[in-house]
Amino acid sequence: MAKTPALPSARKRQWGSERSREPLPTLHPRPSAPKIVWARVAIAITVAGWAAYMLTTALRQIFAYDGEHIWPTIEACIYALVITALSFSALMFLVQREAALRRFRDHERVPRAELDRHFDDEHGEGMTVLIPSYAEEPAVIRKTMWSAALQEYPSLRVVLLLDDPPFPTDPHTLARLEATRQIALGIAEDLAEPAYRFTEALFDFEQRAATGGVGEAEIRSLRDEYRYAVAWLNDMADSEPHEDHVDTFFIDQVVRGLADDLDLTASALESAAESGTELSHQRLHELHRRLVWIFSVDVGTFERKRYASLSSEANKAMNLNAYIGLMGGRYRFVEGPGRKTVLRLVAGAGQEADLVIPNSDYLLTLDADSLLLRDYCLRLVYFLEQPGNERVAVTQTPYSSFRGAPTRIERLAGATTDIQHILHQGMSGYDATFWVGANAVIRMEAMDDIMQIDDVDGFEVRRYVQDRTVIEDTESSVDLADHNWTLVNYPERLSYSATPPDFGSLVVQRRRWANGGLLILPKFLRQVRARRRTSRPVRLGEWMIRVNYMASLAWASFALLFLLTFPFDSDLLSPLVLVAAAPYFLCQASDLKYSGYRYLDILRIYGFNLILLPVNLAGVLKSVEQGLTGRKIPFARTPKVRERTATTLLYVIAPWAIVAFSIFTAWWSFNAQNWGTFFFGALNTVCALWACVENIGIRNSIVDVWMGLTNWMWVTVPTETVGRAAPGEPGFDWQDALFHGYPAAGDPVRRAVRPTPSAAVETAPSRALEARSATGRRA
């Protein structure tokens, strides 16, 4: 089988990292009745603790104004706001958690035979899987494409949306790009033989069934086809490179998991044949077709930056929009500027086209570092096509983490990911689901509803997924709700995605996540007002969860900053604050244990959030900046490389500054005998120091600080280009000249194309001599 070479070396395993590579179960264990009751008790305690504190402490301090000293009242108001903001976020966590537990309790897995029966009829125009990618390692992309290609679904297309610059000059970049371009071809070549075999077997079965009955021999023949598929998949698994925990998941869960599933069917067919049981023609036909669907797939690559008529805006949303906008069309290639091509729509159906992009009923968007289990498409589309779900636009399984992370920070980031999986499931209990862009099945009909058409440089640009912010999936969720569509999270674990393996890449990811929620919030509030006049107003639970999702990172970051830096009066401290906060931490610790981690990891996550405070604040401030200036913020992709990603100077100094300030706070409070603040400062010192040493590292901190202090000394010399090269000069681009024509007066490139006066003087005599010489020869 064709394989992409593995990455140079696996990441070194750290002490304290995760050893087990066994993934979390697909089905959530059914929670007991007492667990759900305690989840509701936790909600009640949080509300009661906050209310009691406000009545007995905060309001008493606020209304204790004596007419002269206003500062204690202001201080009490600030502290009350801080406690209220943090308590509200904790309450939303508990509310979503309780709803998730109810959904896990009520969920029933759809039997395999029911899926086969449902998909027995024709299913329209099928599904297109879109995998946006930029500067990813070929080995990472290849696993993702294979997990999509092995999905069992009728008429499946898998398209890699390659967003790298198409004509790189760096040899290493060019080699990586060429290797990436070969992935789709390699997958198609590997699948050709089994696809042909199973298609022929299905055809032969249909021919025999049309002329006679189906007996034991037919069952044994089908069993042999399944055993061939099992052997083929096991051979593939044996030949795969196996270097890290993601490789382990791909081999064991994606490839061998499918092999085990098919092997079970082969064993069942063997038992049926031995017992003399006859299977119906319909059931045998379904099982034959299952093999055809698994191994028959259209795999390809599309590079939008090759085409001048498509947007080249550097973000994931426009990469998706460029392809979605072409679906269902036939196009002709026209010479464009430089080395690019212009796509022109072919009007007549009978005319020849250079590029044909089929339409689809469903889209599956999949990040290039995510993997799907084998029945992801079948189960999610089955859900969408059930009565009552006609207005569900997006369904997904919020991704879980790969287990066995070699670094401590990747393990911790994975723990927060698995907690978020539970919370996202709870959102669906209140119709407050947000599209999580790592993976989702989307109705094309819904995408058409939210489409906007713009004109950019004379070309039509269709926007389905808004690119106004860097969290494009969140804004699109609001757009879909505005058009009376809903979103639902499917309550199983069917998708997995990588988490950042070092602090530098984590900073890039979390800063992007913190950026944009505030910009989307006004659009949602306008939607709330509009829906009041309809039959589907926004319920209180949905309102609170959506507002918390979009804005809590902002208020929680500023609230925590106040608690860390402001010396509040000890009279404002009360054990009731701990009573209100305790359910949040206890329930999160319980969920960590439920997800395969340790109870004490709650302290690691607290310290983890402390050192990410500057990152979150930076993202929030970027949102404010964009709101004031109207300028889009560049989309920063999370680096996915084997080498460590360096951290910018601010984000490596700030965590250590938090440690230093916490030590100072604890020391000052001890001397002032302010024991509440002392214990809070001591806790922050221990957790933040622990997080810095474990997740950043002392050596890495020194290296990144040195790089940050010395980077200013290096100067990049820009390549000077004065317009376009003239004919006969190095770099003259004839395609560009044919596309743009002669530059008009005032065009900045005019000087480069038009010969200079000195050049005209030098060439005139020689041309005159050549003309006279030619005349003489003709005479």
Going across the biggest sheet, name each strand in turn.
3-2-1-7-11-9-14
Distance between the ends: 71 Å
Count of DSSP-assigned helices: 25
What percent strand? 5-15%
The gross shape turns out to be: globular
The unreliable regions are: 2-9, 750-779
The overall pLDDT average reads 86
Radius of gyration: 31 Å
Largest sheet: 7 strands, mixed
Structural class, from helix and strand content? Answer: alpha/beta
Please identify the oligomeric state. single chain
Helix content: 55-70%
Q: Count of DSSP E strands?
A: 15
Describe this structure as you would to a colleague.
With 779 residues, the chain is α/β, with parallel strands linked by helices. Among the domains are: 33-105 and 507-712, no CATH class; 744-778. The chain has 25 helices and 15 strands. The strands form four sheets. A seven-stranded mixed β-sheet has the order 3-2-1-7-11-9-14, with helices on both faces. Helix 1 (33-62) packs antiparallel against helix 2 (71-106), helix 2 (71-106) packs across helix 11 (408-427) and helix 14 (503-513) packs across helix 19. The radius of gyration is 31 Å and the shape is globular. It starts with 32 loop residues before the first helix and ends with a helix. Mean pLDDT is 86; it is low at 2-9 and 750-779.
